[in-house]
Amino acid sequence: MHRPLTGLTSKNIVREMLAGVTLLAIAIPLNIGYAQIAGLPATAGLYALVVPTIVYALVVSSRQLVASPDAAAAALVASSIGGLAAAGSEDYLAMAMAQAIICGILFVLLAVFKLGFLANFLSKPILIGFVGGLALDILVSQVAKMLGISIDSGGEFVDKVVGVFGGLGSTNLYALAISVFAVVVLLAGKRFLKMVPWALVVMIVATVVVLVADLGDRGVAVLGEVPAGAPQLTWPMLDWQTWLLLIPSALALTMVTTAEGLLVSRSYGEKRHYRTSPNRDLLAFGVANVAAGAQGSFAVGSSTSRTAAMDQAGSRTQLPSLVLAVGTLLLLLFGTGLLEDIPSPAIGAIVGVAILPLLGFREFRALWHQDRFEFSIGAVCFLTTLFVGSIAGILVAFVLALVNIAKRASNPAIDVLAADGSPTASLLDPAATGAMTAPGVVVIRMAAPMFFANGDAFAGAVRRAVRAPGAGVVQHVVIDMEAVTDADVTAAESFEGLTDWLRSEGVTLSFSRLRAAARPRLERLGILAGQHIFETNRAALDALRTDDARNQLREQQ
């Protein structure tokens, strides 16, 4: 049974509290930046750290996963809602809230019906490409902010790049100096003193410099007034057509968060030796997103970077998240005046450095060396997301996932087995020379279910085994069915054609090691009709060791 704050003891409570202070220092500047990416006020980012964080921490099974809006989610919000309403308008905020609520409902449905496995369609190359495309789009906007250049942050990627290059002549040197300082400190600090909340240090120092040097009057943009007060319970008032328009983007957000969130949750659970429940984690994302949408925030996902920071700080409970919620609430009640003069170039630098790892250059390089096809999948997803849009990117991602599955399933391992059951020859190579298990007998194993993508490939492999040069006269084929857990109508049709061909060639057919669970379906599809079934391959070879035995089996068929 789940208990909130599992793992908290009197011995680690101080460490967990200190980790919470560190999380607060990391989250405040980042969430302000992510809200700006999403085209929302700073309060939208801060509100996500209060009620949604509390309900998530009390429901989730993971002891360490940190929930928060992240860069990818913020970019998805901006790209999906930017074409429906003007960024910063009341309708825009209402749509972002509605989108979060829809995400929450989808998460709850995934948890109730145990459909989290659907996120497995988003393989690593797809996630790398999708998130990398979003990250590069974000980075261009942040570079403009760091240079003090005004561009349309809700525009297309190409328009943003053109805007940045076209505005280089109007670069604000003070903004550039703040950005350079921030980037140097953040990168150096990340390398040498990881435990220091450098984002907070940069934000404080940059704000002091702006106030002392009066840089606000010299063209350096600042955050501006942040309304004080705790988040209020509300509801987005939109017509039902607008709610329907938000479903595709909410589905994209849900699937990306599911894939990343469950993976991170499971990995830390395995690393720190505690059990996690995927469906409970999905439920936690659901209630957190409904809470976010009902109190003026936007979609909440998992934060890999903050989770890693908490793990490095020694945290093994959800107490830091509760400390974060309390600290943010106090800031909203009593300290919003401290946020007004934060320079936008510093926020841009903080967000820019935070999303650099999301660009995926290192991962793409690894994919290039490991598997060129998977690299091409990631690259297509990256380019589609970047140049066409996030929704198109997620649709292409699912299509590519299906293509990848079909490609791999269409070429399963198909081998001729030796008498001891070990593979002696692969039948995937059309030019492969023949091999027999015993004189006149070939035992063939396909290590996959039989379905439309591989039915013809299997039939072709059996034909090659019978006719391969050097095979001698094949009189009997035994198909090892141990790995065949299922079949479909298309595969059954291909198998029927193979059976007719074998009969015309004077080759008998039988099966071995048939799975009991698969037998009813295989019989219903007609695959087993009239064929002898042996318990083991050895039994098949013993039964077929003489010509008389083979002829007797041929007569029975």
UniProtKB/TrEMBL annotation:
CDD domains: STAS_SulP_like_sulfate_transporter
Swiss-Prot/TrEMBL GO biological process terms: transmembrane transport
Annotated localization: Membrane
GO CC annotations on file: membrane
Tagged with keyword Endoplasmic reticulum: no
Pfam family, one: STAS
Domain of life assignment: Bacteria
Keywords: Membrane, Transmembrane, Transmembrane helix
Gene3D superfamilies: STAS domain
Record's bilayer topology term: Multi-pass membrane protein
Transmembrane segments: 12-32, 38-59, 71-87, 93-113, 125-144, 164-188, 195-213, 243-265, 319-339, 345-361, 373-403
Domain STAS: 431-544
Stated name of the protein: SulP family inorganic anion transporter
